[in-house]
Amino acid sequence: MNDSLLLLRRDTIVDVHTMGELLVRDEHFCWTLEDPIRERVGINGWYWDSSFKIPKQTAIPSGVYEVAVTFSQKFQRRMPILLGVPDYTGIRFHTGETVDHSEGCPLIGRSRNQVQGRLWDGVGLTAELTAIIDGASKQGKVWCKVANP
Question: Would the pTM count as exceeding 0.90?
Fold first, then answer.
């Protein structure tokens, strides 16, 4: 098994959005923007329950997920998808500027504004990430760790 190739490290959590950084092999790749986190903090750290989810308005739970590249009917191209996310299907890394573009998916961009909750400069970024995952998948399964602060 590959170690986690990808790390989505969340660093900004506010009521209306979640921002973070996507690392590839522990190196900065891009910034991320997601819907608000609705997980709760308990005695043993963050935990998830299905009842916390507001459809298309909730960030995926923290955890470790297999990543594959499959064809997206919605976007009409091959894209990275996170597999086995509790209570979610079709979670893909893709570009977008605001949480209005997310619907639960982690958005990616080269620049960000944490106060406004915006990303930009994402042209070609999904294709770059797809190529990285395609290359790593030749060695075995690819994993992404999603970590809350």
Answer: yes
